[in-house]
Amino acid sequence: MSQKTALITGITGQDGSYLAELLLSMNYRVVGMVRRTSTINFDRIKHIQEQVDIVQGDLLDQSSMMDIVREYQPDEVYNLAAQSFVPTSFSQPVLTGEFTALGVTRILEAIRHVKPNTRFYQASSSEMFGKVQEVPQRESTPLYPRSPYGVAKVYGHWITVNYRESYDLFACSGILFNHESPRRGLEFVTHKVTHAVAKIKLGLQKELRMGNLDARRDWGFAGDYVRAMWLMLQQDHPDDYVIATGETHAVSELLDVAFSYVGLNYQDHVIIDPKFYRPAEVDLLIGDPAKAKKALGWEPQVSFKVLVHMMVDADLAELKK
Ligand code: NAP
Ligand code: G4F
Fold it and tell me: Same domain for 101 and 236?
C-alpha cells in the first residue's frame, strides 16, 4: 500500500505531538503546520522533528492553508490548532473566534477547493456542552457553551457538519472531553497542580493559588485520545463521536490525589484566589463514550489516578534535572 500523508495543524501542541508519534509509528508521512514565531517552540516534538515535514502556515491566513493542501496533497487533515485556553478566550474573545471558529472554515475551504477527497478531523470540545442539558453528555445532547472558547468551538463543530452535508466532504468532529499528559500546558488545572506538587515536595514552592475547586471534569490521557481521532478517519462514513472516560472528578479530588501521592495534604498548601474564577463556569462534565466504543472499538486505557501520578512523576523528574 502506498504511504499516506497526514497534515496536522497544531503539531507543536499537546495533542499534535502525540498524534504525530502515532501516525509515524504507522508509517505515515507527517506534515506539521506551524505558525511563524520569533523563537522556535518545538519542545514537544523535538524527539521526532527529523521525521516530520514542518511547514509554515496560519489559521488566520487563507492562502497559506490553500498552498499547503496544494503542495502536500494530504490524505488526512487533523485540525488541532486553536486558542485552547478558556480564560484567554474571555480576555481575547475576537482573536479566539478568528482562530478557533473561522480558522476551521478556512481549512475546510482549502480542502473543498483543492483536494475534496481529503479526510478531515475537527477538534471539537466538551466545552460546547457548557451548562449541561443532560447527564452524561452524548453526541445528541443540546449545546450550551459558557465561554467565547466554547462558542467558537460550537461554530467549528457545526461548520464541519455543514461542509459534510453540503459538499459531501469526509469531515468528522471528535467531541473530546478534557485530556491531559506530562505535555499539557502549565496553565491548565491538572498540570498547574502536579507541577506545584512537585515543586512543594522539593521545597521550591510553598503555596498554590487556585480557583473553583468544585468544578467537575471527565479527565483522560491524551495518548489514548489521539488514537480515537485516527480511528474516526478510518471508518466507511464520516460521523461525530464523544470521546471520554465516563467518570467525573472534582478539582478538589485532583488536588487530593496529587498531593497525597507525595505524602502531603493539599489543605496545608492551597489558597483560594478569586483571580482564577471565570465569568461563567462549566460546573460538571461527564461524557458517554458508548458510540465510540461500539463503532470505533475505542476504550481509554489510563485511569484518572494513574494519569495524575504519571504527571507528578514527570514533573518531579523534570525539576530534579
Ligand atoms: P494546545 O496544546 O493549546 O495546542 C494548540 C496548538 O494550536 C499549538 O500547536 C498552537 O501553536 C496552535 N495554534 C494556535 N493558534 C494557531 C494559529 N493561528 N495558526 C496555527 N496554529 C495555531 O492544545 P491541545 O490540548 O493539544 O488541543 C488540541 C485541540 O483540541 C485544540 O483545538 C483544543 O481546543 C482541542 N481540545 C482540547 C482538549 C483537551 O482537553 N486538551 C479537549 C477538547 C478539545 P503554538 O505552539 O505556536 O502556540
Ligand atoms: O484545566 P482547565 O483550564 O480546562 P477547561 O477549562 O476545562 O478546558 C480544557 O478542556 C476543554 C475540554 O472540556 C478543552 F476544550 C479546552 O481547550 C481545555 O483543554 O480548567 C478545568 C477546571 C475549570 O472548571 C476551572 O475553573 O478547573 C477549574 N480551576 C480551578 N482552579 C482552574 C483553576 N483552572 C485553571 N486553569 N487554573 C486554576 O487555578
Answer: yes
